[in-house]
Amino acid sequence: MARKIITAIDVGSSKITTVISSVEENEKPSVIGVCSYPSKGIKKGVVVNIDDATNAISESVTAAERMAGVTVSDVLISINGELVTSLNNKGVVAVAGSEITVDDTYRAIENARTLSLPDNLNPIHIIPREFVVDNQGGIKYPIGMSGTRLEVETHIITTPNSYWQNLKKCVEQLGLNVYDVVFTGWASSLSVLTDTEKELGVTMLDIGAGTTSISIFDEGSIIYSGVIPLGGINITSDLAIGLQVSLEEAEKIKTHMGDLLDNKAKAKKSSSDSTPALLRKLDEEEPKTKKGDEIDLSVLDITGKKVSKELLVKIVEARCEEIFDMAKEKVEKAGFKMAMPAGIVLTGGTSLLRDLPKFTQGVFGVAARVGYPSGLTGMIEEISDPSFACVQGLIKYALEEEGDSEAIKVKSGGNLKDKIVEWFKSLMP
């Protein structure tokens, strides 16, 4: 294929990240422009002020365009929010001829998509998990097989119409065309999870600023998607209240807490380094915090304030435990479990909290790791940590929509049949 420009916008509660990538045939996407701009008008993943959100998105896109030296017109965007939900549904059809055709699979998926949803909900993804031919399951490619009955198991992700319409309005007011919208959790999973983890069974928690997205995979397919309205902002607020400091000071403390606990913080540490330092060196043996140990916050230019190391740890752990408990409760109410054989993968900016994988393992009794995004080349230094898992996943999603995917991923309103044809063509020898 000729050189193609793909532009992805991750609309988060703390930052709006735009990544512009150039894709050459048989080459990994190369990042040529990137900008993270402070988010405005977005709360807990949802647009609450259209004008503010539009301006923030505009600043992010314009800066990325300037860096890349291109003007973009088509973009794909992330979508999030507490009311993003999912369900699994089955579609069944009789095979029209002696062999299963693309049209048969199309009818089966359409049958699965035909379900009763509240008027305010819109399916944004219909993801076929497996096909069943005459009661034989585990089939990924049924075309050409003989059979009389075709079933498809699908995973459907839905979002309130208002979420999508308000977000779309913000982007279209800038003269941009939104050609796809992707659930944050689904996008992040594309950039941080391995095929082995998905096959064995894994839970991914994308802990962002205002929300935590949950994605659970088993036998290679996604089986659950959901969101809880808690994230890193809540930890910051807890620190502000518990330590009696401002929100800005609390954020600075959270960002450099790892260094503070290790007595390594420097007074002039750059405020532009937004990566929390709590888990910078996971493999190092950390000194135990002694009761009564205090930290002089003047090293962070917070004068006249000392805090207990023990109190710092307790505040952070209490909120993390609440996030995990809420996620676990939400998943269990849906009839699933988070503790999967391949463990739990943490991503998002809050995943960088020190010892969070160890803490997670203690809560759920399974292995846990921090998921770093991969798969892109070029100017990736600024988007290499877990807080950029979603935006990198958006780029990979765009490529997979062109036929490189191992599963059909279809947005509501798209040309389902054409996408199915493209996908099957990619599997043919």
- Determine the strand fraction and express it as a percent band: 25-35%
Task: Outline the biggest β-sheet.
Answer: 6 strands, mixed
Q: What does the radius of gyration come to?
A: 23 Å
> Number of DSSP strands?
19
Shape: globular
Question: Gap between N and C termini, in Å?
Answer: 18 Å
Mean pLDDT: 86
Q: What's the topology here?
A:
Elements (H helix, E strand, L loop, with lengths): L3 E8 L3 E9 L6 E9 L3 E2 L2 E2 L2 H19 L5 E6 L5 E10 L7 H12 L7 E13 L2 E4 L9 E12 H12 L4 E7 H9 L2 H6 L1 E6 L4 E7 L2 E8 L3 H12 L3 H9 L1 H5 L32 E3 L9 E3 H25 L10 E4 L8 H9 L3 E3 L6 E2 L10 H16 L11 H12 L2
Parallel strand pairs: 1-6, 3-19, 6-11, 12-17, 17-18
Antiparallel strand pairs: 1-2, 2-3, 4-5, 7-10, 8-9, 8-10, 12-13, 13-14, 15-16
Helix pairs in contact: 1-3, 2-12, 4-11, 6-7, 6-9, 9-10, 11-12
Describe it:
The structure is a single chain. The chain has twelve helices and 19 strands. It has 429 residues and is of the alpha/beta class. Among the domains are: 83 residues, 2-Layer Sandwich (Dna Ligase, domain 1); 77 residues, no CATH class. The strands form five sheets. The protein has a six-stranded mixed beta sheet with strand order 11-6-1-2-3-19, with helices on both faces. Strand 13 and strand 14 form a beta hairpin.
